[in-house]
Amino acid sequence: MGKLPSSFILRSVVNGGSHLSNFHSSSSNTIATHIEALSKKPMPVRGKGKIDYRFGNVDDALIVFNKMIGKYPKPSIVEFNKLLGAVVRMKHYAIVVSMYRQIELLGVSHDGYSMNILINGFCQLGRIDFGLSVFGKMLKLGVEPSVVTFSTLINGLCIQSKITEAISIFDGMTEREYQLDLIVYNTILKGLCKIGNTDRAARFLRLMEGTGFEPDIVAYNTILDCLCKKGLLKEALNLFSEMKVKGIRPDIITYNCLIHGMCNSGRQEEATRLLNEMVDNNISLDIVTYTILVDALCTEGMICKAVEIVNTMRKQGIEPNVVTYSTLVDAHCKEGMVSKAEDIVDTMIKRGIEPDVITYSALVNGHCLQNEMDKARGVFNLMIEKGCAPDIVTYNTMINGYCKGKRLDEAMELFHEISRKGPILDTVTYSTLLQSMFQLGRVLTACELFRKVLASGQIPDIVTCLILLNALCKTGHIEEALKLFEAMRNSGLELDIVPYTILIDGLCKVGHIKVAKELFHQLSNNGLKPDVYTYCLMINGLCKDGLPDEAYKLFGSMGDNVCSLDSCCYNVMIRGFLRNSYTSKATQLLTEMVGQQAEATRLLNEMVDINISLDVVTYTILIDALCEEGMISKAVETVDMVIKEDIELDVVTYNTLVDAHCKKGMVSKAEDIMLKIYIYIYIRIQNLMPCI
């Protein structure tokens, strides 16, 4: 077996090697500071030697440990390793670290096995940096790292999603002919799937086969789970078929992964087929399977069926867990059945299952959806009293509820509470508050909040920036909007057409057409193409600024930019012509639009293809313009055409027509029009009668 030279490890893994020299010189207090808030995650420790100790709880282990360190002569490291291994099995990794340090202070020399235990402890605590420090000491003392050492480091790196470094160690082990086992391969597979790299995971599976390792059920389940979570169900089913062909019997985990994937994708029939296959293969549904089904039924709005499933579980001796109950609570709350959701919470408490943060957050959300903010606050306070700390989702739900109820001051109180004691604020928090501030007209407060976000070192996401940009434009704070837009461009955010369109709209509304035009022309320079909405805004802005010819030129260029004309474009252009007294051009464009003349041009063909129609506002503007120009007969024709199109004109349109006839001395014609109006209204009322 070849050694991995220390230079290889230091080059490929230990990039921040400062920990190597200072870890073992640091005090136990320093270590305790670092591990205070660390999580506990299980991983079996592998190594030589039989573990003799078995404890019911960690306190018993500590009693034995205190007796051992009081003995003279001191027990050997082999005896201590047995105890360390027992504590590791109980997943008290922080205590293992503390024990290791005390053993070291006694002067008992550590061996490779005890160092492997410590490396594993740090890896499970999420401190791969300290694990690498221990590895550095092994190299310094001349202790040869084993396969267990490297596989433990690989696992620690994968836990931290440092897959590239993990694969570097794996490749080094392969090159130097270390005897790899299935656990190492499965660890790499799990790491690749954790970061969603299914392609590389599949290739790694083939690599296993090529090196003589037959992937086991764990390997297949790992990739199946990843494929299903990414919605790659065809690939998942192919892999499922492959494992069956190879004689690997699917287990409950396999079926749960596939059923969950099918339910999430709305493929209920396929999920049912897999359930039946499970039963045929004598695989009983477990709590996970039932919870998947409950979630799927709730998602489909079939809450009664979901409740039936829960009742079936209990009859079969499977007690629903907090996840199952929380799913039901959330579904009832979203449907407005908050009182029933509270009954479910009472039931789970009676059965000895404590609600968690997800359960309470669902209840909070239910009350917020009903605008029952005082009740929501009551649940919020209750969860704190019960020792269940609200997470950012809970806070955001409360803040959103207060904002929707226009209770911004109370929302800000919660915001300041989060800022003081956590959890970490996210973009949802800021976006919700900013939007509410603008809706309530508190523009300066919103700008001040945004500046605080930037000052705190947080980088707002594109959604938050767009909310602020849109609000600034709508409230006429165009100078602030321009500054924000420049900041967005300089921040490295990838800007698409949306922020440009928002700003162009804002500029046009305040009459800054020149700047809007410059921004519009910058689109192509930045590799962006204006969409229909951007064109409409720019055309409308030009028309309002008295530039209908330039607007029409832009209107005609839309086809050149592969941007299809729609009703909005035609309506905007026609209105622009009419506002600028280009009545004949408006009439021509209208004629093209509705196809009333044989000589309809290219525009007519486009309109027929996409069934474009004018709206009532455009028709009213057109009729008014025709009357102003004295083209009363044309105005009457237009009204008749509108009625044939089944567009309901309002009283303003008819008043315009009657007034025009009266001014021309055509009173009898005006009376005829009035009669037509009465008949038209009568017919409309009669048509509506069956609906009343």
Automatic annotation (TrEMBL):
One of its GO terms (molecular function) is mRNA binding. InterPro entries: PPR_rpt, TPR-like_helical_dom_sf. The keyword Repeat applies. Keywords: Repeat. Pfam families: PPR, PPR_1, PPR_2. The keyword Lipid metabolism does not apply. SUPFAM superfamilies: HCP-like, TPR-like. Coiled coil: none annotated. PPR repeats lie at residues 111-145, 146-180, 181-215, 216-250, 251-285, 286-320, 321-355, 356-390, 391-425, 426-460, 461-495, 496-530, 531-565, 566-600, 615-649, 650-680. Belongs to the PPR family. P subfamily. This is Pentacotripeptide-repeat region of PRORP domain-containing protein. It comes from Gossypium barbadense (Sea Island cotton). The lineage of its organism: Eukaryota, Viridiplantae, Streptophyta, Embryophyta, Tracheophyta.
